[in-house]
Design goal:
With 455 residues, this protein is of the alpha+beta class. The chain has 12 helices and 22 strands. The longest helix has 20 residues. It is globular and about 65 Å long. The protein binds flavin-adenine dinucleotide (FAD).
Length: 455
């Protein structure tokens, strides 16, 4: 055996597996294979001047490398079972929360101390929301911010680098089951291990699907969330964001009964491009450092789309819609809410004339040519509903960027220990398993399997 444990993917799931293994069993020989670069080499070429939009790099530095998709994220660790994944279905709510709190403690020890933990407990906004048929979900949110999140990752890497062997820029191509464990094949070499943890996140979703197909591991996929990123002056949401930082609000549309929710709120943040398997969608982040903050707040409005038999390719459906926006806009499209309502496209002039400066250089256009009617209607209804708790949300100049898609990896069939069905010692964790969709849940799943292995 080359290694006792091989971890595939150095996102939060992989990092926390490695961290906990080192803590619990320092004598184990552990390797981490990562398709992307080491942390200091991760750089998105978009500088707003020479390179204004995504040039589709071979490995996307936003999504891949040490720190995973979370490295340049807003670093919001939501400590809750209400959203962010369904880890609790495997291990119970209490244990899931304990693991998330443990991850928070580690983050505090490795550079996050002093950052704020927000909570919805006892907030007056719960009442205000419910009075307007909006539902505020319960959570504690640790906001590290993009800058502190980076420092925490740097410190975790410095702790791990002499104890774990890292292989960067080394995508794993195949995982084979052997008599004593697993063989992990890269383009150049193969490595053997007794136990293998796969934590390849969303960027590794296609690869994960292939591996499950090759190994005959059952999977299912039937959900995708589609919507837009909303950007408005920070003052509009400041009463909510000052107290809660992030509010996850759910609304059931009157017209279709669909659920629309706010997602990933970034007070005084910036809207950014996201490249998933060559498709450009939109996302957002913000900084803890006031010097880097903007005058705008952004958040996603997403409509959950569940499919029933015989359709199985929910991600393919989301990709097709995102491709349509890429086709029309060459990337992300931006539209003023006022233009959308009046049935006209936004133009450079209309965007320039708005009382808000966009933080992302997107192509002015018409989202009604991209988003299915049912989804767009849901988003419009939700904007008017939010306008009642945050007046100004439905102003003409509110910017909508599209499309934002939350791809859900197909859910891999694993047991309560996150071990793949019929494959002893093969663990599938984090967003790549389809079980988690967030930093805190992915990290918690890493700790969980490390403890299983250590035992
Ligand atoms: C811009 C942005 C902002 C976000 N903000 C937040 C937030 O504030 N809060 C929150 O909770 N979540 C946020 N998220 C989501 C969060 O980042 C993910 O839920 C989390 O990173 C999942 O962790 P993971 O370890 O499962 O996967 P990932 O972080 O995706 O890491 C997987 C790693 O595996 C590597 N990999 C893939 N395939 C292979 C292969 N074949 N071989 C080797 N390596 C491979 C990838 O390169 C990647 O580095 C954000 C995401 C983005 C993109």
């Amino acid at each position: 055996m080359n290694y006792d444990v091989i971890i595939i993917g150095a996102g939060p799931g992989g990092i926390f597996s490695a961290f906990e293994l080192v803590k619990q069993k320092p004598e184990l020989k552990v390797a981490v294979f990562e398709a992307g670069h080491s942390l200091e080499k991760r750089r998105c070429p978009i500088d707003g001047e020479k390179v204004k939009s995504c040039i589709a790099c071979k490995t996307c530095s936003i999504m891949s490398g040490f720190g995973g998709a979370g490295a340049f994220s807003d670093g919001k660790y939501n400590i809750t079972n209400d959203f962010g994944g369904t880890l609790y279905e495997y291990i119970g709510k209490k244990k899931a929360l304990e693991l998330m709190h443990y991850v928070d403690e580690i983050n505090m020890t490795y550079g996050g101390e002093g950052t704020k933990l927000y909570s919805t407990a006892g907030t007056k906004f719960k009442k205000l929301c419910i009075q307007n048929d909006l539902h505020l979900l319960d959570a504690s949110v640790r906001h590290l911010g993009t800058d502190i999140n980076y420092i925490v990752l740097e410190n975790l890497y410095n702790f791990l680098k002499d104890k774990v062997e890292f292989f960067f820029d080394t995508p794993v191509e195949h995982v084979l089951s052997t008599e004593n464990g697993y063989e992990v094949q890269t383009a150049k070499e193969s490595y053997s291990c007794e136990k293998c943890v796969i934590s390849v996140g969303r960027s590794g979703s296609k690869w994960m699907e292939k591996v499950c197909g090759e190994m005959g591991i059952p999977t299912k996929s039937n959900r995708v969330d589609i919507g837009v990123r909303v950007e408005l002056p920070a003052e509009v949401f400041s009463h909510l964001t000052d107290e809660l930082y992030e509010s996850k609000i759910v609304y059931r549309t009157k017209e279709y009964g669909d659920l629309v929710r706010t997602f990933c709120m970034n007070p005084k943040g910036a809207v950014v491009n996201e490249n998933t398997n060559g498709i450009i969608t939109v996302n957002g982040h913000s900084y803890e450092d006031p010097a880097k903050q903007t005058e705008n707040t952004n958040f996603a409005l997403l409509v959950a789309k569940h499919f029933s038999e015989p359709f199985k390719d929910s991600n393919g459906y989301g990709e097709s819609i995102a491709r349509l926006s890429n086709m029309l806009g060459g990337g992300v499209i931006v539209q003023r809410f006022g233009d959308l309502i009046r049935g006209r496209r936004s133009t450079e002039d209309r965007i320039e004339g708005a009382f808000i400066t966009p933080t992302l250089n997107a192509t002015p256009g018409d989202l009604s040519l991209v988003l299915p009617k049912r989804i767009l209607d849901g988003i419009i209804e939700m904007l008017y509903a939010l306008d009642k708790v945050a007046p100004g949300t439905a102003n003409d100049d509110t910017l909508l960027y599209g499309v934002e898609v939350k791809f859900y990896n197909m859910e891999v069939e694993v047991g309560s220990d996150l071990m793949a069905k019929d494959y002893k010692g093969l663990y599938i964790i984090g967003d790549g398993s389809g079980i988690t969709h967030s930093l805190s849940h992915a990290s918690a799943s890493g700790v969980l399997v490390a403890r299983e292995i250590a035992e």
